[in-house]
């Protein structure tokens, strides 16, 4: 904490037989007199300068000090000057002589400036405390993630019950998903070291109530009771984050099937093909889908599409692949670094599982559908691997599957 400078005044008075025999100008001004002469003229006894509450103690102190029964020492008194101003002084006694006889010299230090400053600091501290406690923003101070102070808004944002509950935490990292704690620790060290200052970061949080929330945190290094700490201000941005995620999801996923849409598939392919990964591609097309729509209606057709989408996604993810809706009743799968044999196994699994699904129209009418699947891989692209080249080769395999009677898999691999 920086040092605080304040000006104070000290004066000197000499007392003999409880009478004032000498006083300097500073002493006179402290007690509201214009000059030493003004004080001496208007005061018959030293006791006239101090509150009646201290008369007995002052007399006893004078006698004990002059007789040698008490060592000279300091005292603190609250006085009222001749103008009614209340002030506090610190006095230091010294044995001396005046005109050849023992006397008591008292040095008086006016503590009023220090007390006023202390009261101002207390008032400012109280104002700051009230501002923190009444703030609608969540505020916490921690040192190495151990809470030192938290306001009611922070507790409320965390789904807690009381400030005491918050301060009992061994670490606020208990409220952060485990996979994010390393980044949070690095961020803390950067703040404490001064590498970062006044930053804002969006952090996922799991509150006392178990609810996941997202907060934009503003954190700064501060000094708390003489030691480094970090003050964190929280802003709940859960709705904003969820809306952004929803928009990203809507931009990348097909609304009906929740599979990647064609744009997102191209983005995924550009990323994986640029890293020179070996890729297997599979195209899936529901057999005679127009007939299903014409016979049973589009709602049933949508049900068939969603059934194949779920089966496709489940089987693709088992082998580290990704599935998307290529268009209409057509789906696509990509599997990085997988063999054609693995692709054939996945395709056969999808084909068989989908063919076993029974679609119920009513109690008497039920039907099964089927899918044809074509397979190819990036090594088959003779003129260089491109997205369109790989998809075109796979589409040719799909065409052969359709020509071979449908409900089958075609690719450059021995049939199982």
Automatic annotation (TrEMBL):
PROSITE patterns tied to this protein: GGDEF
Domain GGDEF: start-end pairs: 277-414
SUPFAM superfamilies: Nucleotide cyclase (SSF55073), PYP-like sensor domain (PAS domain) (SSF55785)
InterPro entries, per the entry: Diguanylate_Cyclase, GGDEF_dom, Nucleotide_cyclase, PAS, PAS-like_dom_sf, Rev_trsase/Diguanyl_cyclase
EC number: 2.7.7.65
First-tier enzyme category under EC: transferase
GO MF assignments: diguanylate cyclase activity
Keyword flag Isomerase: no
The keyword Nucleotidyltransferase is annotated on this UniProt entry: yes
Top-level division of the source organism's lineage: Bacteria
Reaction catalysis annotation: 2 GTP = 3',3'-c-di-GMP + 2 diphosphate
Keywords: Nucleotidyltransferase, Transferase
PANTHER family: DIGUANYLATE CYCLASE DGCM-RELATED, REGULATORY COMPONENTS OF SENSORY TRANSDUCTION SYSTEM
Stated name of the protein: diguanylate cyclase
Organism of derivation: Vibrio artabrorum
């Amino acid at each position: 904490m920086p040092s605080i400078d304040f000006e104070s005044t000290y004066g000197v008075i000499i007392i003999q037989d409880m009478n004032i025999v000498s006083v300097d100008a500073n002493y006179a001004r402290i007690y509201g007199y214009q000059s030493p002469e003004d004080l001496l003229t208007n005061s018959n006894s030293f006791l006239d300068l101090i509150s009646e509450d201290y008369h007995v103690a002052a007399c006893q102190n004078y006698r004990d000090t002059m007789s040698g029964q008490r060592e000279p020492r300091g005292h603190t008194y609250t006085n009222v000057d001749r103008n009614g101003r209340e002030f506090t002084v610190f006095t230091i006694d010294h044995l001396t002589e005046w005109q050849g006889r023992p006397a008591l010299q008292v040095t008086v230090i006016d503590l009023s400036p220090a007390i006023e400053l202390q009261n101002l600091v207390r008032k400012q501290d109280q104002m700051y405390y009230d501002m923190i406690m009444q703030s609608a923003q969540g505020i916490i101070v921690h040192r190495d993630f151990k809470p030192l102070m938290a306001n009611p808004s922070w507790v409320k944002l965390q789904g807690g019950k009381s400030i005491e509950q918050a301060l009992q935490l061994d670490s606020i990292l208990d409220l952060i998903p485990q996979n994010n704690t390393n980044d949070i620790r690095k961020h803390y060290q950067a703040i404490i070291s001064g590498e970062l200052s006044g930053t804002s970061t969006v952090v996922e949080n799991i509150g006392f109530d178990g609810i996941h929330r997202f907060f934009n945190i503003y954190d700064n290094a501060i000094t708390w009771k003489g030691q480094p700490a970090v003050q964190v201000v929280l802003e709940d941005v859960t709705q904003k984050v969820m809306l952004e995620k929803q928009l990203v999801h809507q931009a990348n996923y097909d609304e009906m099937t929740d599979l990647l849409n064609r744009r997102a598939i191209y983005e995924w392919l550009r990323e994986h093909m640029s890293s020179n990964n070996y890729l297997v591609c599979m195209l899936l097309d529901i057999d005679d889908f127009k007939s299903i729509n014409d016979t049973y209606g589009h709602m049933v057709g949508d049900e068939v599409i969603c059934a194949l989408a779920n089966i496709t996604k489940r089987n693709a993810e088992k082998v580290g692949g990704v599935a998307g809706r290529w268009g209409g009743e057509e789906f696509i799968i990509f599997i990085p670094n997988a063999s054609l044999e693995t692709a054939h196994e996945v395709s056969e699994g999808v084909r068989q599982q989908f063919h076993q699904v029974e679609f119920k129209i009513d109690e008497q009418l039920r039907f099964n559908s089927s899918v044809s699947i074509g397979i190819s891989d990036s090594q088959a692209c003779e003129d260089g691997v491109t997205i369109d080249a790989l998809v075109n080769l796979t589409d040719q395999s799909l065409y052969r599957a359709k020509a071979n009677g449908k409900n089958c898999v075609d690719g450059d691999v021995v049939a199982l």
